[in-house]
Design a protein that fits this description.
Elements lengths: L1 H25 L11 H6 L3 H21 L4 H9 L1 H13 L5 H20 L10 H21 L4 H25 L5 H6 L1 H23 L2 H23 L9 H19 L33
Helix pairs in contact: 1-3, 1-4, 1-5, 4-6, 4-11, 4-12, 5-6, 5-12, 6-12, 7-8, 7-10, 8-10, 8-11, 11-12
Length: 300
């Protein structure tokens, strides 16, 4: 289990670094109208975004490794810790100072993860029926529709809704990845859960990038973290045989609450997590030339 916990934490580090790079790139390209897939084509021209994509893919591989033996509530809480990674790295990378509340949030997230790890009794192999796998595809399609609808909402409110929709997409990714029984090519290509993971992952990535253009990183990240952490945790315990050690139900619940609180607090910190001059800003206009002196009265 130790290696799987390290894989989950490694995924959080990869996702946390990628979030900084993705936010920087998203704010340096033309703002998308609604939810526009062409935004990804514009972003891919940015080296920082290419690195962010590579880190996200590497993080997902580690994420998948962790889900082989760890319960969803522990893995998703570790992934939520990527926000703490972003906050900690923002100081040396972006010169952002962490106040006392931010440091308490980082500590709270770490304590929460420790409680969840201590309370985890592992998980069991679950064979989800064909109907349940197609239900995941339907959930991915629903996230796509919801994302397109909330993408029409402007401003910071739209950013919050887009972050929430992205979190729903990442929740489907977590649940779908948990129920993949075999990672060899043929079973993957014939499993509906694979297509649910791919569709919801791409859509969530696009929705989050769009949200980063609409408002501050705090506005988009808070709702996303809650959705992608709480929903898989509930589904894992209720339907996928994720187990908590006897007598550890309350500490595990407290740990989940601490991990989510820490992530949401850090996600709501000021937009200084990513500092860049707005791309729409134009240089200040030159001062107007002084008016010529008026001739004395009576002179023509």
């Amino acid at each position: 289990m130790t290696l799987d916990v390290l894989a989950a934490l490694g995924a959080a580090v990869a996702y946390g670094v990628a979030a900084i790079l993705q936010a920087v790139a998203a704010r340096r390209v033309a703002v998308a109208s609604g939810v526009d897939p062409r935004l990804l084509l514009r972003l891919i021209r940015r080296p920082s975004f290419v690195v962010a994509v590579a880190l996200n893919l590497g993080g997902y591989v580690l994420h998948l490794v962790a889900l082989r033996s760890l319960p969803l509530f522990l893995v998703q809480a570790a992934i939520a810790g990527s926000v703490a990674v972003t906050a900690v790295l923002s100081r040396p990378v972006l010169g952002t100072e962490l106040d006392i509340g931010d440091r308490l949030a980082v500590a709270g997230a770490a304590v929460g993860l420790a409680l969840l790890a201590a309370g985890s009794a592992g998980t069991q192999d679950v064979v989800l029926g064909t109907g349940g796998r197609w239900l995941l595809v339907g959930a991915a399609a629903a996230v796509t529709v919801v994302g397109w609808v909330v993408g029409q909402v402007p401003g910071h409110v739209g950013a919050a809704f887009l972050g929430l929709a992205a979190g729903l997409g990442y929740a489907v990714v977590g649940i779908g990845s948990r129920v993949l029984p075999d990672l060899s090519p043929v079973p993957l290509l014939t499993d509906p859960a694979t297509y649910a993971v791919v569709l919801s992952g791409v859509v969530a990535f696009l929705l989050y990038a769009t949200a980063l253009q609409r408002g501050a990183i705090m506005t988009a990240t808070g709702p996303m973290v809650v959705a992608q952490t709480v929903i898989p945790a509930v589904v894992g315990v209720a339907l996928l045989s994720d187990e908590v050690r006897p007598g550890w139900q309350l500490p595990a619940l407290v740990g989940l609450a601490l991990a989510v609180w820490g992530a949401v607090h850090l996600g709501r910190r000021p937009a200084g997590l990513v500092t860049s001059r707005p791309r729409s800003a134009s240089p200040p206009a030159p001062p107007a030339p002084p008016a010529p002196p008026r001739p004395p009265s009576g002179v023509r």
